[in-house]
Amino acid sequence: MRKMSKEYEMSQGSISTIVKDKLKMIPYRMQKGAFLSQKNKTLRMKKARKLLAGTKDGSHLTTLFTDEKIFTVETNKNGQNHPIIATDYQSACEKGKILNKTSHPASVMVFAGITADGKTPLIFVDSGVEGVALSQFSQQKPIMDLPAGRRPRSSCQRDSRVVSRQFSEFISAADWLASSPDLNPMDYAVWIYLTEKVSSKNCPSIKALKTALIKKWDEIDDDYLRAVIDAYPKRLKAVIKAKGGRFENYS
């Protein structure tokens, strides 16, 4: 809209009014996402139907959704979303306009999982190590604090053989939808929450980063977990409605 205001020699406010109020259009921010071919979409829709059918008995409330993510000691901010208000450039710099970045910031991989009423401990592993987190996780006893008789299912895709030793029921890699972080509660809600809480500023060390992650992870309560899991069936329905394609955010 800034470009159009210059092109048509109109104020940005007028252009915004025309676009939003007259044309009823919404400016969507560009995002990166996994490529979905027609084959991917067809498989996504097929598997979404199967998983949705499985939620009718409430099994998704005890499914253990897991994932891993790399956190760095450097802040994770989008400059466009975090403008600095100042009278001049120097003052803006003093207020934090420039984010100090390094080529290879210190980082840690975090592995964890949630259900509708419980969560696992955070497991820290070296960055780039695949499968180690899952192996460690499967050996945790007790793995999480759930009411007696509740047997969680796992959505972990890394190695179903490892998971099956801990759980007799789980969403296998064959049943899970490829290229679908928009369906894993860890991706569409939990990691975003932790990033907002922990990565708003630089951490002085890996130790400080781990401490902050554990603190914020422990603060996640059951109400939040239930809301996140409740969004899961809605998202499956959205995938089906979109015929396996992208859909509006339902978190």
Description:
- The chain has 2 domains: 1-30, no CATH class; 35-80 and 106-241, 2-Layer Sandwich (Nucleotidyltransferase, domain 5), CATH 3.30.420.10.
- It contains 9 helices and 5 strands.
- It has helices at residues 2-7, 12-22, 38-54, 89-94, 132-138, 160-166, 185-198, 206-219, 222-241; strands at 63-72, 107-115, 118-119, 123-125, 153-154.
- InterPro entries: RNaseH_sf (IPR036397).
- GO terms for molecular function: nucleic acid binding.
Keywords:
single chain; 251 residues; alpha+beta; Nucleotidyltransferase, domain 5; 2 domains; five-stranded mixed sheet; RNaseH_sf; nucleic acid binding
SSE layout:
Elements (H helix, E strand, L loop, with lengths): L1 H6 L4 H11 L15 H17 L8 E10 L16 H6 L12 E9 L2 E2 L3 E3 L6 H7 L14 E2 L5 H7 L18 H14 L7 H14 L2 H20 L10
Parallel strand pairs: 1-5
Antiparallel strand pairs: 1-2, 2-3, 2-4
Helix pairs in contact: 3-9
**Percent of residues in helices:** 40-55%
Number of strands: 5
* CATH architecture descriptor name of the largest domain: 2-Layer Sandwich
Average predicted local confidence, pLDDT: 77
The CATH first-level class of the largest domain comes to: Alpha Beta
Radius of gyration over all CA atoms, rounded: 21 Å
The main sheet comes to: 5 strands, mixed
**Uncertain segments:** 136-154, 156-168
SS-derived structural category:
alpha+beta
Q: What is the CATH superfamily classification of the largest domain?
A: Ribonuclease H-like superfamily/Ribonuclease H
Quaternary state reads: single chain
In whole angstroms, how far apart are the ends?
A: 28 Å
The total number of structural domains is 2
Provide the succession of SSEs: HHHEHEEEHEHHHH
